[in-house]
Design a protein that fits this description.
Blueprint: E1 8-12, H1 16-28, E2 32-36, H2 39-49, E3 53-57, H3 65-75, E4 82-87, H4 91-99, E5 104-108, H5 112-126, E6 139-141, E7 144-147, E8 152-155, E9 158-159, H6 164-175, E10 180-181, H7 183-191, H8 199-212, E11 222-225, E12 229-232
Parallel strand pairs: 1-2, 1-3, 3-4, 4-5
Antiparallel strand pairs: 6-7, 7-8, 8-9, 10-12, 11-12
Helix pairs in contact: 4-8, 6-7, 6-8
Length: about 240
């Protein structure tokens, strides 16, 4: 959040027309906007300006969007929400973007209104209100503790570096233990999408498992119910 109290959005896009349209619409929606036209400049801006959200094109000169996302997530440990812009029909790009840590994606050509709605939805989840955070609303499961207000997640007292969507997904499962949800249902209930690419859910579940499971390839808590979807199996307390 900037000193003006307006959310700060960084747009990294090499197409001048797309860049200008996004800037204009976002500023009309009361966002503060910074734009970058190539990968190296965009990465430097992301690191220096600490924006509230990044709109990131996959195809960029100098450094592509996938590499930028990877560097922010893995090298910097950043959890800034990232919405990836991908070419229509390029499923591999969408999956790769989600795998490197993007929270969401929009395919080109896209509706600016749809993108601004996606931005607003992600920011409402990620921005933390000022002031003390209550303890009563904590969501727990075994050693996992989530604070929905501060958007903090701990595992055995150690902070978990979750992206916005990963946090939303984990919180949803913790609030609905022992229930099976299909990928379509998760798209509607967690993402708020009436329709979308089911691989979005698959990739986020995989990423989440790598952060919360002892052996991600053999999950014990976020399990697959074959032919149906996914289920959260809470830890069972064992009496001494």
């Amino acid at each position: 959040m900037t000193n003006t109290g307006r959310p700060h959005v960084l747009v990294i896009e090499d197409d001048l027309a797309v860049r200008d349209v996004l800037r204009r619409y976002l500023e009309q929606d009361s966002y503060e906007v910074t734009v970058a036209s190539d990968g190296p400049t965009g990465l430097a801006a992301a690191r220096h300006l600490n924006p509230d959200l990044i709109v990131l094109d996959v195809m960029l000169p100098g450094l592509d969007g996938l590499e930028i996302c990877t560097r922010l997530r893995e090298d910097d440990g950043s959890s800034v929400p990232i919405i990836m812009l991908t070419a229509l029909g390029e499923t591999d790009d969408r999956i790769a973007g989600l795998s490197t840590g993007a929270d969401d994606y929009v395919t080109k050509p896209f509706s600016v209104k749809e993108l601004t709605l996606r931005i607003g939805s992600v920011l409402r989840r990620s921005l933390v209100p000022a002031g003390p955070t209550p303890v009563a609303g904590l969501v727990t499961s075994g050693e996992l503790v989530l604070n929905p207000v501060s958007r903090e997640a701990l595992s055995g007292g150690i902070p978990l570096p979750l992206t916005t969507r990963e946090f939303d997904l984990l919180q949803f499962f913790l609030r609905h233990p022992s229930q099976v949800f299909s990928r379509d249902e998760l798209l509607k209930l967690v993402w708020g999408w009436e329709y979308g690419d089911q691989s979005t859910v698959t990739v986020h579940v995989k990423r989440l498992r790598h952060k919360i499971e002892i052996t991600p390839s053999e999950p014990e808590r976020l399990v697959t119910v074959y032919g149906l979807g996914y289920r959260w199996d809470p830890e069972i307390a064992v009496s001494p």
